[in-house]
Amino acid sequence: MRILGIDPGLANTGWGIIDSTGHKSRPVSFGVINTNKDSLESMRIFSIAEQLGLIAEKYNVEICAIEDIYFTKNTSSAISVAKVIGSSIHKLSQLKLDVKLYSPLKIKSIITGYGNADKKQVQEMVRLHLGLEQRPKPDHAADALAAALCLATYETSMSRILR
Questions:
Q1: pTM of the shown model
Q2: Catalytic residue among 50, 67, 129, 139
């Protein structure tokens, strides 16, 4: 199963693609979509969604995992991230891709076994799960790979339970 993981953000949206078969996952590609802070917010959101669509098509993605929004004191950035998520879901759904949303707590719990793991712990577990020589950089790409691994692990576990 080819999975696109997404760590949404208005300034930087991380993406990571893995191939997963059973308990084995391998990295395919990962990176970050950066937007210009001087551009209109609507154009930044549109650009992110379009680029994610191109990435999904280029790599023949089968399913997508997006890190869902979490609320902090900065509600204006949370609203922008929510807009990126909605736009991304719309674009990926146009490509007939299933999109699953996972909370940061669920991703951390599934990847590290601890819901309050810090970024370095998540990055290290992503490195180990994918057999990478070093932690994936930048942080947003590592978080996107974690979302993809979360989906792979969760779907594999659920398919066993439902057999």
A1: 0.92
A2: 67
Among the listed residues 124, 129, 140, 143, the single catalytic one is 140
User: What range defines the domain where residue 124 resides?
Assistant: 2-161
CATH classification at residue 117: 3.30.420.10
CB 108 within 8 A of CB 122: yes
Residue of 20, 17, 19, 23 lying closest to 4 (CA atoms): 17
Q: Is 155 a catalytic residue?
A: no
Q: Respond yes or no: is residue 7 known to be catalytic.
A: yes
Catalytic residue list contains 140: yes
Q: How many domains are there within the chain?
A: 1
Decide: helix, strand or coil at residue 116. coil
* Residue 150 near residue 22, CB atoms below 8 Å: no
pLDDT in tens, 118-160: 989 999 999 999 999 999 999 999 999 999 999 999 776 555 4
